[in-house]
Design a protein that fits this description.
This protein is of the alpha+beta class and about 450 residues long. It has 9 helices and 23 strands. The protein has helices at about 5, 235-245, 285-295, 310-330, 335-345, 365-380, 385-395, 405-415, 420-430, and strands at about 25-35, 40-50, 60, 65-70, 75, 80-85, 85-90, 100-110, 115, 120-125, 130-135, 155-160, 165-170, 170-180, 180-195, 200-205, 205-210, 215-220, 255-260, 265-270, 270-275, 305, 400-405. The strands form 6 sheets. An 8-stranded mixed beta sheet has the order 5-4-8-2-1-12-15-14, with no helix packed on it. Helix 2 links the parallel strand 18 and strand 19. Helix 4 (about 310-330) packs across helix 6 and helix 6 crosses helix 7. It is globular and about 65 Å long.
């Protein structure tokens, strides 16, 4: 047996050498202390997990930060070593398959974005604060974890930062307390969450809250309330519309963080999204991206891919939500967007499979648009009633779960019959761009 097989290293071409299949984390309790001025992070991670096999050794993902103490079930580890971005832990006694165990890791260092095949991701300094955008491989840049999207867990994220900064993280803010060294913010995420969706945002922010059943918060640079208007003023309306089309909103609240810095793209996390100040404009391009990130709360954050090869299940759905929002808000119908983007794709290279685009193309815009076109083709083929029945069954059946493309194809077949199988084969498994069905 190879060492990789022995510890269950995840075999994923998209995010290689991340994750350990020999155990599943069920809960992370993160206690972090951060200095904005020096970019110094110290942390204590208490990790509750279940062994999938007998464990004499296991691995965690941790990048650039150095572990100073590791224990397993209250006993110091027999040995732990770090190499590259892996923390290898050897318990003093075998952890028996099926048993629940607790890892405690104390660590510290200066966090940096983690490199990957698609670029850098994770903890990153802003001009005055921090942004954490971990998709798809950046979670190890700030906490030790079993970094694979199918291993969802609940979280407590407790961060102490200078008192003139606000800390925003996933879940519900259960409280904050001021100390001489700073203010400690405690967030609790009770919905299972993939590691790449865990986030911390630190900055000099103010907050505007609206919404009734689902609180909607816009976090914006202090003293710049006007920046929270524009497309962000329509988030309540978007949430109501998507709730009607996709099913109930899957989390306790929704937060949009607007940084003072400009950002290349917006970034989703569970229960929130992050936008640069350059997206606070009144044009369609900004508004569609606000809708896109909100739609990810259903498609990507609650219903999450098991493997990155199925990225279209996130990005194709969120892109199609943009077109649905356009239609629902009395702009262009989805059919017009579909024809426009089909014409554009038809003039580009046809050199990837939507069902497995490869790590170099996983965030290529053609994946987003071709995924959305697949959904529009399905809607045209089966009609609105069945199409939205599929979407609502998808989000209900797999709430806070992990899925694959095969799961979606099976559900569509269950609702509509085997006749849709050819449509999925053409869009997912053929390189050439299929024709759009006629409305």
């Amino acid at each position: 047996m190879t060492r990789a097989a022995a510890v269950g290293v995840q075999d994923d071409r998209y995010v290689p050498d991340h994750g350990d299949l020999s155990y599943d984390v069920t809960h992370y309790d993160l206690q972090l202390d951060y200095s904005v001025e020096s970019n110094r992070l110290s942390g204590r991670a208490t990790i509750t997990a279940v062994a999938s096999s007998d464990l004499d050794e296991l691995e965690l993902d941790l990048y650039r930060l150095r572990a100073s103490k590791v224990s397993v079930d209250g006993t110091p580890a027999a040995k732990y070593t770090q190499r590259k971005h892996r923390l290898v832990v050897r318990p003093r006694s075998t952890v028996v398959a099926g048993s629940t165990f607790t890892l405690v890791v104390s660590y510290a260092g200066s966090p940096q974005p983690m490199p990957g095949l698609d670029g850098d991701a994770g903890w990153e300094e802003l001009a005055d604060g921090v942004i954490v955008a971990s998709q798809p491989h950046g979670a190890p840049s700030w906490f030790p974890c079993n970094d694979r999207p199918a291993n969802k867990a609940t979280y407590v994220i407790e961060v102490t930062a200078p008192s003139n900064y606000r800390v925003v993280a996933n879940g519900v803010l259960e409280g904050k307390r001021r100390r001489s060294a700073g203010t400690t913010w405690r967030h609790v995420e009770e919905a299972p969450m993939a590691t790449y969706l865990a986030t911390v945002q630190i900055g000099r922010y103010d907050v505007l809250e609206t919404g009734a059943d689902v609180p909607v918060r816009t976090v914006y640079p202090a003293g710049r309330k006007a920046i929270s208007g524009g497309p962000f003023a329509r988030q309540d309306e978007m949430l109501t519309t998507f709730g009607r089309l996709f099913g109930p909103y899957p989390f306790a609240a929704y937060t949009a963080v607007i940084t003072a810095d400009e950002l290349d793209i917006p970034l989703e996390a569970q229960g929130l999204a992050v936008f640069g100040s350059n997206f606070a404009t009144d044009d369609w391009d900004s508004e569609r991206l606000v809708a896109h990130e909100l739609a990810h709360q259903w498609f990507g954050n609650s219903v999450t891919l098991t493997s990155w090869r199925d990225i279209w299940l996130h990005e194709g759905f969120a892109c199609y939500a943009e077109w649905l929002w356009s239609e629902e808000s009395d702009r262009e119908p989805a059919t017009d967007h579909a024809r426009l983007h089909w014409d554009r794709l038809d003039g580009l290279d046809q050199d990837f499979l939507l069902g497995d685009p490869g790590p170099d193309l996983m965030f290529d815009d053609r994946v987003y648009k071709r995924g959305a076109l697949l959904l529009h083709a399905l809607r045209t083929e089966v009609g609105d009633a069945r199409f939205f029945e599929i979407l609502q069954a998808w989000t209900e059946r797999h709430t806070h779960g992990s899925v694959s493309t095969d799961d979606f194809v099976a559900l569509a077949g269950e609702v509509c019959g085997a006749s849709v199988g050819g449509l999925f084969d053409a869009w997912l498994r053929e390189v050439s761009l299929p024709e759009l069905p006629q409305s």
